[in-house]
Sequence to fold (615 residues):
Amino acid sequence: MCGIVGYIGSRDASTVLIKGLKRLEYRGYDSAGIALINGELELDYRKGKGKVSNLERALRKDSLIGTLGIGHTRWATHGEPNDINSHPHLSESGNIAVVHNGIIENYNTLKKKLIERGRVFQSQTDTEVIGHLIEEIYLASPDITFEHAIRLALKQIVGTYGLAIINKEFPDTIFIARKGSPLLLGIGEEEMFIASDASPVVEYTNKVVYLDDGEIAIVNRNSYKVKTIDDVPLTKEVHELAISLDAIEKAGYPHFMLKEIFEQPRSIADCMRGRINPENGTVLLGGIEDVMDELVNARRITIAACGTSWHSALVGEYLFEQLAKTPVEVEYASEFRYRDPLIGKGDVLLVISQSGETADTLAAMREARKRGALVLGICNVVGSTIARETDAGVFTHAGPEIGVASTKAFTAQVVVLIMMALELGQRKGILNRKKMKEYIRELSKIPSKVEYILEHNDQEIRKMASLFTYAPNFLYLGRSYNFPVALEGALKLKEISYIHAEGYPAAEMKHGPIALIDEMMPVVVIAATDHTNDKMISNIEEVKARKGRIISIMNDDNPEVKKLSEFCISIPSTSDCFSPVLTVIPLQLLSYYIAVNRGCNVDQPRNLAKSVTVE
Ligand code: M6R
Fold:
């Protein structure tokens, strides 16, 4: 979703801002803009619909020169994507420029009042009220400082914001504020960087301060002050960023998504590193060590997440119930909060989020905390809001995921869930040492099995993708642990290729979706040999009887599935409960190659955002 960058120092701000906005492109956006205070101490801006490269071209013709500025990539919420609605938005006088992530919920009321008092609005956005409001308060009295005016304006605003504000009267200062939308400050040598996530900052500094909700910062070249919206000064911890520049570049791959798919042998190994011991058959997850007793005694675990993370939550349900005999409920984070959930003391809410910033997941987490539940997290982004606000949790250590379609985050989330369920099963005495050793040994082989799949099936999947590039619909079927994988396969295909696809539990097909099957319908069956194998074969027969085109993801030892299938992708066997980490890999590749064949923008699919920071 929207991205913010800011710079103050001695470099050419325009160059830093454009580079920063390019690093934020992965989040999904429809327009971009920057505002600078130039050498003549005038505020100037360029903005427009479309890609950052368009803005860059426009700046080549008509440059902006200065060493302080702010920039934005917009993902439209209020008002269509067009030049006028792009950020920055200016105040009435044009002295103040604002970039904003989030939603001002009471903007209509504020706007009406501002118009009544004579302000003229240019755009249809909610954001534009901010600059007008701050300016009105600032000019109302000579006793009010600009910073004070910002704080007073923010008190009138209902909603969420990450904000960066400049005023030509203060050519050495950027003002930033946060409520519900992430913002961080990168500290350099006599220069400061502002960004909505770490990617624009890592090439300049690894020292960052994360703003928390209700905080504002006054940022100069050499110093910064953080305070609450009520003017209470704060001392903030300076964190060290762990990500490297390599991790956010394509490294020779045509797309981030492909790079991230092929990174999985390493990302899965990184996720398990130091946490499993195949010799002793033990798992130790330091991040939840302190709450292990509460987990052991929990009546049930509720897992809340969105999108792909919700699919891994579904795998988690099977895992916790089988390996730890702990009842689990899986919730869409967006629904959980609004249906008066029965959760309280003695319950555990586990939230799963790659970005750690998903607004619905955050809201679910805060609701459960308010009701007294223990709140745990599985997160990829260190320093993210969810990572910081949960009582305890486990990082997936998958490395930055830039492609909008989640791939390596999913497999790492499932691996964390496997490790959690194993540790819980061990502590509850459900899994004895022998069983634990078997599981852990098998788990330690997963990275090399993923590597095998990537090496041996890539060509076959490319061929298959070219045959099905123009199929209008797809059906994905799976049972047990592979039912969530069917959902994930369908989601991957629809989000990057725009082909309509649905995932179903294979047995559920006969209750409706079977009506769709004819000789035009590709049906992807995830038929890893497990305890549901016989039933799965019957379901495949049902598809075949209706002339559906069967593509199966199967193990070598399954001649029956092979015989029934038009296309087979054969993958190594593993324990039933680890199977999703392997079966999902061919599905990621299939959707990737189909999307490429269709000429789609794989890394930044239309309408989608990497981090969905509005509810
Ligand atoms: O960052 P999160 O894991 O909380 O994001 C949740 C979903 O927005 C995300 O998984 C989305 O569905 C992806 N585009 C899936 O590829």
